[in-house]
Amino acid sequence: MANNTIRFSAILLLTLVGIFIIDQNIKMLFVDGFRYYTECIDLILVYNKGVAFSMFAFLDEWLKYIQLAMLIGILGYLFYIKEMCYAIPAGLLLGGAFSNVYDRFIHGGVVDMVYWHCGFNFAVFNFADVMRAVAFVWCLFLDFKPKFCKS
Fold first, then answer.
1. Catalytic sites, residue numbers
2. How many domains does the chain have?
3. Structural domain boundaries enclosing 74
4. Other CB atoms closer than 10 Å to residue 90's CB: what's the count?
5. What is the mean pLDDT of residues 116-137?
6. What percent of the chain has pLDDT over 90?
7. Exposed/middle/buried for 74, CB within 10 Å: 0-12, 13-18, 19+?
8. How large is the average pLDDT for residues 100-122?
């Protein structure tokens, strides 16, 4: 049992830290001035003061503390359930989420940079957002196919 807890913790935390580091390094390229423009996708710098599509931007400073409290709660819940099959997707989700909350503390908003505008204008997003979406789909798959989630 203790061995499973150590293994779960290691996988979760290594994935979380890895995603955090990758995302922050990508974001620093754009904070330092990198830009690239194409017909369909622009790589630009945008500071998102809200969440998806700038919702809840009116919460200002409160938003980062609300999100931080939610993330600590999710992390606590994951260590409580210790389901090994969720270690990697949870690490992806939390790594991206902690990286975005970190941005709020350091930059005053989430550093977004990928702007899709081919055929329609889509939200500006970042690597952390993509990792959180992958984690969400992965967790849904595990929920609907429990045979792949054996502890």
1. 112, 129
2. 1
3. 2-148
4. 25
5. 92
6. 75
7. middle
8. 93
